[in-house]
Design brief:
Blueprint: H1 3-10, H2 14-23, E1 30-31, E2 37-38, H3 43-55, H4 60-72, H5 77-124
Antiparallel strand pairs: 1-2
């Protein structure tokens, strides 16, 4: 498939695809008779995996390391697994941090909802006139 089609199907821009190819995240594409890139559809699975690594915050240097290990073949399975395990630990820690942040946000939101309800309840009550502080009842003379 041509780079335009790969861009459409992968969600990456043609510029990003060329950049990934240049730095080594994507293997160099075969070229057709007119010297245009011609990608195999199987590259979509690899691009999707790279997208997941990116979404989970893997630094590009680690993505490049993983890509080089992958290119080296089956003898690197252990190294790739270790790299992914380390990244998974960082992702889990980040998820836990985000969950703690969500708890704070939820608590604040509930607090505001409670305050709004108390204000509505207060507004629904009949208002009683209050005497100003320090005022006395009028006494007949």
């Amino acid at each position: 498939m041509k780079i335009g089609e790969l861009a459409k199907r992968s969600g990456l821009s043609a510029y990003t695809i060329r950049y990934y190819e240049r730095i080594g995240l994507l293997p160099h594409a075969d070229r057709d008779a007119s010297k245009q890139r011609d990608y195999d559809a199987s590259i979509l699975v690899w691009i999707e995996f790279l997208g997941r690594l990116k979404t989970t915050g893997m630094p590009i240097r680690d993505m490049l390391r993983y890509a080089k290990l992958r290119e080296a073949g089956a003898v690197t399975h252990t190294e790739r697994r270790e790299l992914l395990k380390e990244h998974r630990a960082r992702v889990r820690a980040h998820v836990a941090e985000l969950q703690a942040c969500l708890l704070v946000l939820d608590t604040k939101i509930v607090g505001y909802a409670d305050l709004e309800q108390r204000m509505k309840d207060h507004d629904a009550e009949p208002h009683r006139r209050r005497k100003p502080a320090g005022a006395r009842d009028a006494r007949p003379l």
